[in-house]
Design a protein that fits this description.
By secondary structure, the protein is of the alpha/beta class. Helix content is 42%, strand content 14%. The chain has a six-stranded parallel sheet, with helices on both faces. A hairpin with a 2-residue loop joins strand 6 and strand 7. Helix 1 packs across helix 8. It starts with 8 loop residues before the first strand and ends with a helix. The model has no long low-confidence stretch (mean pLDDT 96).
Length: 395
């Protein structure tokens, strides 16, 4: 069965997470994605190493379903190969600030001079047009500037999330924009420049907070795991050492929780009349819930809460995530081998499922330069030319 982006060719010059993940999402939808990296492999290959070879954990998560072309673009011969490659692709993906993008010859005007209908998808920290546009930044910087680090943790102790959610969400927005540009090109024949900025992507989950602040000037303070819009909503422990989260919001859900607690005063006390009043009593309601959960095992608590139709789930360790029965039933992970790794690595299958046009299941990322010969052959280079490029350190 053909894939949605079958026939679309992508040159991926991305580094680290956001741009490479964008490219892998396009590969999931069927695009042919060629990762272009320095001879010997890019610097992002070895972050959190998994074994003797050049695959780190982030690299493994963001570079499935790709080919690898090694290329030194600083030489005249390398620039000729670069131009041939650009002429052959529909999309170029890069992750550099605007000025550095131009210096690398990956800006839209330079690429359009080679191929007029090219689509350039660039990912950077701060976007174009502002005084910080040419600064560099990582996920944590964008988290900090979104207002969400301030609201995470406790007063005076802001915390960033461990997982780089801004990197991955930026990659998703970049992929969404790229697919829109591909559709536009199919309609009009025109390429365009798609830009995704980490600091802007970080604002998406922050917008309810920022909207409230802009309208009410409320100046909220962090409250740990407790919700600021409903209660009880917190993390709780059980008598067998388990931990779970439960989040109650709205009158109907609160009534179901109060019924489970078996305490009539939780229904009649005016302090618990609305979400707003309940939030003010969040500490008391969390304590009441903790008294209940302390008498339950984790399985008992989760079963009772699920029966009451209350949002809940266990706090899982990483190994428990890989082994969870529900995730296994969904065939969430495939496992892939890679040279030098002591064990196969989990690979996340596409988290969106399409009934009529299935996405590609993940294959492990390529070794550095693994597909150089085949890509160059597709570009019209013969064996002698490829050997000469190798001998000269161009590929």
């Amino acid at each position: 069965m053909s894939k949605i982006l079958e026939g679309v060719r992508v040159a991926d010059f991305g580094k680290y997470i956001d741009a490479p993940y964008c490219a892998s999402l396009l590969a999931d939808f069927g695009a042919e994605v060629i990762r272009v990296e320095d001879v010997g492999g890019g610097v992002d290959r070895r972050v959190v190493p998994l074994g003797e070879e050049d695959a780190g954990a982030s690299f493994f998560a963001c570079n499935h379903n790709k080919k690898s072309l090694s290329l030194n673009t600083t030489t005249d011969e390398g620039k000729k190969v670069f131009a041939k490659l650009i002429s052959s692709v529909d999309v170029v993906i890069a992750s550099l600030p605007p000025r550095a993008l131009a210096a690398a010859g990956l800006d839209y005007e330079t690429l359009r001079a080679i191929k007029p209908d090219i689509i350039l998808t660039s990912v950077n920290a701060f976007g174009s047009g502002g005084p910080w546009s040419d600064r560099v930044g990582f996920d944590g910087v964008a988290q900090a500037m979104s207002g969400l680090c301030y609201m995470t943790g406790y007063p005076g102790d802001p915390q960033k999330a461990y997982g780089p959610y801004v990197d991955f969400s930026t990659g998703m927005f970049a992929a969404l924009g790229t697919m829109g540009a591909i559709q536009w090109k199919q309609k009009t024949g025109e390429g365009q420049h798609v830009e995704a900025a980490m600091v802007l992507a970080a604002l998406v989950p922050a917008m309810p907070l920022l909207t409230e602040q802009g309208v009410t000037n409320i100046n909220r303070k962090p409250a740990g795991n407790r919700s600021q819009v409903g209660a009880p909503a917190d993390m709780f422990s059980t008598k067998d050492g388990g931990r779970f989260i439960m989040q109650v919001s709205g009158d109907d859900m609160y009534r179901r929780w109060a019924k489970l607690m078996g305490d009539e005063t939780l229904m009649t006390d005016p302090r618990f009349k609305t979400d707003g009043t309940r939030v003010r009593e969040g500490g008391f309601l969390s304590q009441r819930m903790q008294e209940w959960s302390s008498q339950q095992t984790l399985d008992e608590a989760l079963t009772a809460l699920a029966k009451a139709k209350l949002p809940t789930g266990p706090v899982l360790k990483p190994q428990e995530v890989l082994e969870h029965e529900h995730l296994q039933a969904l065939r969430t992970f495939d496992w892939g081998d890679y040279p030098g790794m002591p064990h196969a690595a989990p690979m996340l299958r596409p988290p969106v499922r399409l009934s009529g046009s299935p996405l590609k299941d993940p294959t492990p990322p390529p070794l550095a330069g693994a597909d150089t010969n085949s890509v160059l052959s597709d570009l019209g280079f013969d064996s002698a030319q490829i050997n000469a490029l190798r001998e000269n350190g161009i590929v």
